[in-house]
Amino acid sequence: MKIIQAENYDQMSHIAANYISAQITLKPDCVLGLATGSSPVGTYQQLIRQYQAGDLDFSEVSSINLDEYRGLSPENDQSYRYFMDTNLFNHVNIDKNRTYVPDGLEPDSHKACRDYDAIIRTHGSIDLQLLGLGNNGHIGFNEPADTFAKGTHCVDLTPSTIQANARFFASMDEVPKQAYTMGIQSIMQAKKILVIVSGTAKAGIVKEAFTGPVTPQVPASILQLHPDVTVVADKDALSLL
Ligand code: F6R
Description:
There is one protein chain. By secondary structure, the protein is of the alpha/beta class. It is 30% helix and 17% strand. The strands form two sheets. Strands 1-10-9-6-2-3-5 form a seven-stranded parallel beta sheet, sandwiched between helices. The protein has a three-stranded antiparallel beta sheet with strand order 4-8-7, with helices on one face. Helix 2 links the parallel strand 2 and strand 3 (62-65). The longest helix has 18 residues, at 9-26. The radius of gyration is 17 Å and the shape is globular. The protein starts with a strand and ends in a 7-residue tail after the last strand. 44% of the residues are buried. Fructose -6-phosphate is lined by residues 35-39, 66-67, 132-134, 138-141.
């Protein structure tokens, strides 16, 4: 695991965007695994800038997102599909037919998960998986558990995750309590993984996940076993290492 220290969120975003654009340049038809949340917003802004400057071409790129809230439509401004459209896809020349997010409106959770695993399988492995790190060590919405879940599954979000997500919703009642998420196996099968983390609030979990024991109670700890992980974190997030 390689850990790169950035001065702050902006520098973290620059470094991460350069890493992703290098992947696209080297393999224009690559499959990117993408994340939502606060961590990648700056990275996506940098990628948009590079595209607008004519330095980046998304026309052959495919993307597979990590997760989606169960029950939210793509038009809901809190859905992850909406997030991806507004924060990246609408601003670059990616073919939206090649961008995948779990179907939050599929009521049959088994079908939603089966369909998403089929999409992942069809693409072979993900070339570069971008991850944020949850306050409780989750990656995607793989929450702390007794075992590592392999494939796409429907999760009951933990109180701490619901609390962390509440900042985006008008009231606590509106925060979805379930989500569909890619499993740990699919994440671990990505050829390369890029983790971005920022802020003092994540310093404790960064230390636990990347230097502590590998355990499903801290899902991100499994990344210690992946052969090609790069963590780009700001000074604050690395302050306890
Ligand atoms: C989002 C996702 C989550 C977030 C994590 C960190 O698609 O899968 O695992 O990456 O919750 O969220 P932020 O970046 O908002 O701190």
